[in-house]
């Protein structure tokens, strides 16, 4: 086993740096935004990831949809989602400036539509729930939906117009975060974290797959679904994060068809959720399955078929478009679908994981909350409902009392 020595020459795993203040395990959108904010606060920060900017960011559609993705029982999460959506315009301005790259942020709004009577009932209930939560959405009949989006099938029976749910391009967002991190002095260790190092009752860093040992004052666990299975974390403290597979298609809208869709279109089709996210560069992202299949991330004929079948029912003209890409990613899901943010019960280990369907949406607020925690040691009030300790042994005892 090798220890990091600031005087050593660069190793195969990347340039060596003085002992960082913060080690971030995972270079997805959440790990990168955390590292960027930490570095901006003057902390020596290092990210451990074999391919930073990869992972779910390369698959996700990038909907910023707190209103149309509202679910019963997730009111606390709604508040965090809305807070992050409000930060997006300022966040992308700052990030694009810092990185010198664009993120593809588009304030285009969303239309959620229903195809049959059951779907319409589902949307009506969602609309009532949105109104109880004080959210802005407007009920439209089928004709009004088609006036907004003429490519919709004549069978569309109604829908919800939500002008505040927007989109960003996760691939460009990840590239911009990577560049901003590099410019802010974040060091990258392009290697896999094999296990967390624990000394006594404290996390002290990570051991890489090649045996290299890295130590830091604080370690941030931002490894997406892998956060729930990292060796070295005592079993009873492992965050309850599991993979939920999502298959996604990418199509291309040739110039002649533009604009195919002018905003994000979502639908419930026979109980399944479908979305189509049109980018200004002609890309059309169609998603997504939601499959509890453990670590399986294969693209299946069945997954592609179901997405295309439902998309065709919603927008018949879709079959004319070139299919350019298929992909599958793993969402890091927690038992209550909300993220785990803040100190864990293991001193020195901080969680920024479990963002499930909302990793891209929650990037700005996660970066701000984690940056504040890492710089000051205080967990901001807004993060308290999302403490990882809500799932710990102490929380279970409290619950039983
Ligand atoms: N937020 C979209 C998805 O998880 O598929």
TrEMBL record:
Keywords: Oxidoreductase, Thiamine biosynthesis. GO terms for molecular function: glycine oxidase activity. Its EC number is 1.4.3.19. Residues 381-401 are annotated as: Disordered. It catalyses: glycine + O2 + H2O = glyoxylate + H2O2 + NH4(+). Residues 21-373 form the FAD dependent oxidoreductase domain. InterPro entries: FAD-dep_OxRdtase (IPR006076), FAD/NAD-bd_sf (IPR036188), Gly_oxidase_ThiO (IPR012727). Pfam families: DAO. It is an enzyme of class 1 (oxidoreductase). Transmembrane segments: none annotated. Pathway: Cofactor biosynthesis; thiamine diphosphate biosynthesis. This is glycine oxidase. The gene is thiO.
């Amino acid at each position: 086993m090798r220890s990091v020595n600031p005087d050593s020459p660069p190793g195969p795993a990347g340039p060596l740096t003085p002992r960082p203040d913060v080690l971030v395990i995972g270079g997805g959108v959440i790990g990168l935004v955390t590292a960027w904010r930490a570095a901006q606060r003057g902390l020596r920060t290092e990210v451990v990831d074999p391919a930073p900017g990869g992972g779910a960011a390369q698959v996700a559609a990038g909907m910023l949809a707190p209103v149309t993705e509202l679910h019963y029982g997730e009111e606390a999460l709604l508040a965090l989602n809305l807070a992050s959506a409000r930060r997006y315009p300022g966040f992308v301005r700052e990030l694009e400036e810092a990185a010198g790259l664009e993120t593809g942020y588009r304030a285009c709004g969303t239309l959620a539509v229903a195809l049959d009577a059951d779907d319409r009932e589902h949307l009506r209930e969602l609309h009532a729930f949105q109104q109880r939560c004080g959210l802005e959405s407007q009920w439209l009949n089928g004709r009004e939906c088609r006036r907004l989006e003429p490519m919709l099938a004549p069978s569309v029976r109604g829908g919800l117009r939500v002008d505040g749910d927007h989109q960003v391009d996760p691939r460009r967002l990840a590239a911009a975060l990577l560049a901003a991190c590099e410019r802010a002095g974040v060091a990258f260790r392009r290697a896999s974290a094999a296990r967390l190092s624990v000394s006594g009752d404290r996390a002290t860093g990570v051991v890489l797959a090649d045996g290299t040992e890295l130590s830091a004052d604080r370690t941030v666990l931002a490894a997406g679904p892998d956060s729930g299975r990292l060796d070295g974390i005592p079993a009873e403290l492992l965050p309850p994060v599991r993979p939920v597979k999502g298959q996604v298609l990418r199509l291309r809208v040739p110039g002649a068809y533009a604009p195919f869709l002018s905003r994000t279109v979502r639908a419930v089709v026979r109980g399944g959720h479908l979305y189509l996210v049109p980018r200004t560069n002609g890309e059309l992202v169609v998603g997504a399955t939601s499959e509890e299949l453990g670590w399986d991330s294969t693209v299946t004929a069945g997954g592609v078929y179901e997405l295309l079948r439902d998309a065709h029912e919603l927008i018949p003209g879709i079959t004319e478009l070139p299919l350019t890409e298929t992909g599958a990613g793993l969402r890091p899901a927690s038992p209550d679908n909300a993220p785990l943010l803040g100190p864990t019960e293991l001193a020195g280990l901080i969680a920024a994981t479990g963002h499930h369907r909302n990793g891209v949406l929650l990037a700005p607020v996660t970066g701000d909350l984690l940056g504040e925690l890492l710089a000051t040691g205080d967990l901001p009030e807004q993060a308290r409902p999302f403490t990882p300790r809500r799932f710990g042994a102490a929380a279970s005892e409290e619950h039983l009392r």
